Structures are given as C-alpha cells and as structure tokens.
C-alpha cells in the first residue's frame, strides 16, 4: 500500500515526533523548581518548540535551500535541548530514569531530522545534476546544428 502524499508539514512523521517531544518537554518543564521557571524551564520550552516550528517553516518554504536551512536549525535546537536535559540531571532536578522517555523521543526525532536532511540534500544534488546535463545536451545539440 502506497503512502499518502505529503500535503502539509503536519503529514511529516518527523514533525509529529517533534510535536510529541515538545509536549514531553513542557511536562518536564512544569516539574522543575519554581526558581527555574524563568531560566531553565523557559529555555527548554523554547528549544523544544523550535524543533517542530522550524520543520513547519522549512516545509512551507518549499524544497529549496531554505528548507535545508530550517532542518539544520531544528537539529541545532535538538542539540541545545539535549544539553539542557543533561544539565537538569547534573543539577539533580531529575534522574536519568525520569528523563529516559524524553531522551528516547529526542533521539528518535534527531534521527528522523538527519534522514530528512539527507533526503533534501540528495534531491537538491539530483536537481542540480539534471540541470547540468540538460545544459550540456542543449549545448551539444546546438553545436551539431551549427556544424550541419
């Protein structure tokens, strides 16, 4: 059975995974101490929310270099989030076991983002190669027409 065509960023599995991750991050932020509400809590919510937001923005730009850029920004936010989750453990606001499901969702999301990035880069290279080949063929055909 064929997969349905992607009509919106909402159809992307990576966006859905990133949204699930963001919900988990908001739940974790709510468990942080009150004195971290405006510092660490705010930072992890911004980093978490940045991931699906950049996927959506990039997809909405169309398949050009901006999409690739936004996927890279989402990966950067995932790296930031990973560091902040580690900080939560080191500060003893949570145990590694407490964060295990969130860390697993983050790893899954990062893996999917890397797959999307590889696919976008591959498609971009193929499009460039097709344009080069088409240009060479046109030059060759034009050259033959001049000789004939």
Distance between the termini: 52 Å
The total number of structural domains is 1
CATH superfamily: 23S rRNA-intervening sequence
CATH class: Mainly Alpha
Relative strand content: under 5%
Main β-sheet description: none
Backbone shape: elongated
Helix content: over 70%
- The strand count comes to 0
Low-confidence parts: none
Rg over CA atoms: 22 Å
Order of helices and strands: HHHH
Number of helices: 4
Summarize the structure.
It contains four helices and no strands. It has 148 residues and is mainly α.
Describe the structure.
There is one protein chain. The protein has 148 residues and is mostly helical. The chain is 80% helix and 0% strand. It has a single domain, classed as 23S rRNA-intervening sequence (de novo design (two linked rop proteins)). The protein contains four helices and no strands. It is elongated, with a radius of gyration of 22 Å. It starts with 12 loop residues before the first helix and ends with a helix. 24% of the residues are buried. The model has no long low-confidence stretch (mean pLDDT 88).
List keywords for this structure.
148 residues; mainly alpha; 4 helices; elongated
């Amino acid at each position: 059975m064929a997969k349905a065509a992607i009509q919106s960023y909402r159809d992307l599995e990576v966006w859905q995974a990133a949204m699930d991750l963001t919900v988990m991050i908001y739940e974790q932020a709510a468990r942080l101490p009150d004195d971290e509400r405006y510092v660490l809590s705010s930072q992890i919510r911004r980093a978490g929310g940045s991931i699906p937001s950049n996927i959506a923005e990039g997809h909405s730009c169309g398949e050009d270099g901006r999409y690739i850029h936004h996927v890279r920004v989402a990966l950067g936010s995932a790296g930031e989030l990973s560091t902040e989750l580690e900080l939560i453990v080191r500060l003893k606001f949570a145990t590694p076991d407490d964060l295990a499901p969130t860390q697993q969702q983050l790893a899954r999301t990062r893996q999917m983002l890397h797959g999307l990035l590889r696919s976008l880069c591959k498609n971009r290279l193929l499009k460039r190669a097709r344009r080069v080949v088409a240009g060479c063929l046109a030059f060759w055909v034009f050259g033959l027409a001049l000789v004939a």
